[in-house]
Amino acid sequence: MVYNSTRGGETNRTASEAILEGLCSDGGLFMPDHIPTFERPVVELKDMSYQELAYEVMKLYFTDFTEEELRHCIDAAYDEKFDTKLIAPLVKKDNAYFLELFHGKTIAFKDMALSILPHLMVTSAKKNNVKDKIVILTATSGDTGKAAMAGFSDVSGTEIIVFYPYGGVSRFQELQMRTEPGWNTHAVAIRGNFDDAQTGVKRIFGDTAFREHLRETAGVRLSSANSINIGRLVPQIVYYVYSYCQLLRSGEIALGEGINVCVPTGNFGNILAAKLAKEMGLPVKKLICASNENKVLTDFFGTGVYNRERPFILTTSPSMDILISSNLERLLYFTVDQDTKEVQALMEALAEKGEYRITDGMRAHMQDFYGGFAKEEAVAGTIKALFDKTGYVIDPHTAVAKTVYDAYVKETGDMTKTVIASTASPFKFAPSVISALGGNGNLDDVFAVIDMLSEKAGVKEPAAVSEVRTAQIRHNTICELKDMEDVTEEFLIEDREKF
Ligand SMILES: *Cc1c(COP(=O)(O)O)cnc(C)c1O
Predict the structure, then answer these.
(1) CA distance 120 to 161
(2) pLDDT digits 0-9 by tens, 102-133
(3) 32-36, 154-158, 167-171, 265-269: which range is least confident on average?
(4) How far, in Å, from the CA of 266 to the mean position of ligand 1?
(5) Are strands 185-190 and 259-264 parallel, antiparallel or unpaired?
(6) Cα 147 to the center of its chain, rounded Å
(7) Residue 428 CA: which ligand 1 atom is closest?
(8) Banded pLDDT at 496 (limits 50, 70, 90)
(9) How far is residue 105's CA from residue 413's CA, in Å, rounded to a whole number?
(10) DSSP states along 338-396
(11) What is the DSSP letter of 290?
(12) Which end of the chain, N or C, is more open, meaning fewer C-beta atoms within 10 Å of its C-beta?
């Protein structure tokens, strides 16, 4: 298996090279040259543990890893960091099956991939004789920052610096980052917004002289934990297969029976993983792509036009407040049979004109996708209705998916059993959840709100929350935008002296 850029500028990379590189030098994304099919019939996968299944899936993509290397990465990632042995349990409520992807360190689905990415990177570095320390630089609007810090925490051979907007993340997210104990982690507040942080990180990546200086003086190689890394996409395929196995095991479906999958979508990574699972041979019928009020993707699947020229709306599902869904480029590539010129033309149109239109032929290839979106009031209504009916509490992202799913069923009458990707614990977004459930009063004290939620839902708060309550604050740096390079250098060079 080799990896090629969706835009044609890079070809024939091994999996480990693609993981180390992250984004292609031509701005494209790495894609495998073909989608593999399962080596064994699904019935033989049915009783596997999450870790065994992860190996069965990932070995088909990361073909230059030895069995020992890959199993080591999997075992180091999916261990007692997760608060359930099942790793990703499936819960039947109302008319759907919720695939809970929030049992990791930061109680959101990014943990599923960010727990393994550091190990894949370190192994990739070894395989390619890269002796430098891998230093991850990431700008975050809140969620990815802590998930990445937790993933890289104490992984030797790596270090991570996260930049977040000062005053621009929720109090809980800020505390999550500032209390991270890993010795090789740093969180820095910058005086600016998320875009400024992102621009600053891109500036550092683009500064060849600075990177060379870091390499020479500190022996480090900068890298990114961005969601376009193939080392994040592939691990996400696993839990869709695993959800199907759980349905089989519990007798909810018969072998070979098709299911639908409904995914609350932002950057299009999670749902693309479901599409890959389908292409590998998992009996998936519809892929229901659920958006919040930033409904670029709903419009895209409805009309064939992708148009980012629209107001950016802040919603209660912030991780889906996105106008450019980067991973969609991979679906396009797939749809045009790897015609990189075609993908390049579409991406240029997006960059220059803010929109592109795909052909009817391409649309015909996307018939298994259904796009829908949910308005804010409907999302809150769904949280309340599901709770009143079943006592089960979901977070606003998951509620976007449930809302869209209910509308889909109403519109189509399709009663195919459906797995909904449940991407965050309600405790992570407690103020929005409590207000949806009709709670009132002061929602500013985040821990008081968490207590309210715990009491209302009759669920104990996850350990990830309790830890933040008592943990010591370790990260205190605040910097100006122009000083991001200096701060980076200070951390890396001081650290070299310390360790
Ligand atoms: C990142 C995220 C999403 C969106 O996932 P994509 O792979 O970007 O589509 C949805 N929900 C939560 C809670 C997230 O953190």
Answers:
(1) 19
(2) 999 999 999 999 999 999 999 999 999 999 99
(3) 167-171
(4) 5
(5) unpaired
(6) 10
(7) 13
(8) low
(9) 38
(10) T-HHHHHHHHHHHHHHSEEE--HHHHHTTTTEEEEE--HHHHHHHHHHHHHHHS----H
(11) E
(12) C
Dist. CA 267 → ligand 1 center (Å): 7
Indicate whether 499 pLDDT > 50: no
Q: Tokens 């929350």 map to which residue?
A: 465
The token pair at 317 is 């599902």
- Tell me, in angstroms, the distance from the centre of ligand 1 to residue 294's CA: 13
Q: What is the pTM of this model?
A: 0.95
- Tell me the Cα Rg of the chain: 22
| Distance from residue 265's CA to the centre of ligand 1 (Å) | 6
Please report the atom of ligand 1 found closest to the CA of residue 424. Answer: 13
Q: Could you give the 3-state DSSP secondary structure of residue 53?
A: helix
Give me ligand 1 centre to Cα 461, in Å. Answer: 22
The residue whose CA has the least distance to atom 8 of ligand 1 is 267
Own/partner pairs, 202-210, CB within 8 angstroms, 24+ separation: 203/484, 204/137, 204/484, 204/485, 204/488, 205/137, 207/485, 210/485
Q: Pocket of ligand 1, candidates 294, 319, 328, 433: which has the most ligand atoms within 8 Å of its Cβ, to mutate? A: 319
**What does the pLDDT look like over 464-486, one tens digit per residue?**
999 999 999 999 999 999 999 99
The C-alpha atoms of residue 39 and residue 241 are separated, in whole angstroms, by: 13
State which of 320, 379, 400 you would mutate to test the pocket of ligand 1, scoring each by most atoms of that ligand within 8 A of its C-beta.
320
| Ligand 1 binding residues, C-beta < 6 A | 108-110, 143, 227, 264-270, 319-320, 397, 423-424
Of 114, 56, 107, 52, nearest to 84 (Cα)?
107
CA distances for 5 relative to 283, 339, 345, angstroms: 28, 11, 14
How far apart are the C-alpha atoms of 214 and 236, rounded to whole Å? 33
Q: What is the pLDDT of residues 171-211, one digit of tens each?
A: 888 999 999 999 999 999 999 988 888 889 989 988 999 99
Q: Which of 146, 228, 267 gets mutated to test ligand 1 (max ligand atoms within 8 A of its CB)?
A: 267
- Cβ atoms of 28 and 238 closer than 8 Å: no
